[in-house]
Design a protein that fits this description.
Layout (H helix, E strand, L loop, with lengths): L7 H14 L5 E6 L1 H12 L4 E7 L8 H17 L3 H12 L11
InterPro entries: AB_hydrolase_fold, NDRG
Family: Belongs to the NDRG family.
Protein name: Protein ndrg3 isoform x1
């Protein structure tokens, strides 16, 4: 059988098993990107098990080909050359969005 990646709803449902495995009655969730989406779905379905959420850059759609290419290119740069200005600009764009920060700056 060919592996099929679970849906966001299936990932959220699996959190019940994680909480049960560790004997947790409730959690404070921190999610970035798709992880934030999964945590939001879990919280909506199980509000009694979530004390609070901190969601960062929550996404509800797949990345497009351009973002996929940027990610692969910058991962390669990060491995071979370290934290270059281009990699830093990509990470800032990825997490904070286009036009939020001046190119080449942290402010």
């Amino acid at each position: 059988k060919i592996f099929e990646y679970p849906t966001m709803d299936e990932l959220a449902a699996q959190l019940n098993f994680v909480l049960s495995h560790f004997g947790l009655r409730s959690v404070i969730g921190l999610g970035v990107g798709a992880g934030g989406n999964v945590l939001a779905r879990f919280a909506l379905g199980h509000p009694d098990k979530v004390e609070a959420l901190c969601l960062i850059n929550v996404v509800s759609t797949q990345a497009g080909w351009i973002e996929w290419g940027y990610q692969k290119l910058n991962a390669r740069y990060l491995k071979s050359k370290g934290m270059t200005q281009g990699v830093l600009d990509y990470l800032m764009w990825h997490h904070f969005g286009k036009g939020r920060l001046k190119k080449g700056t942290m402010t």
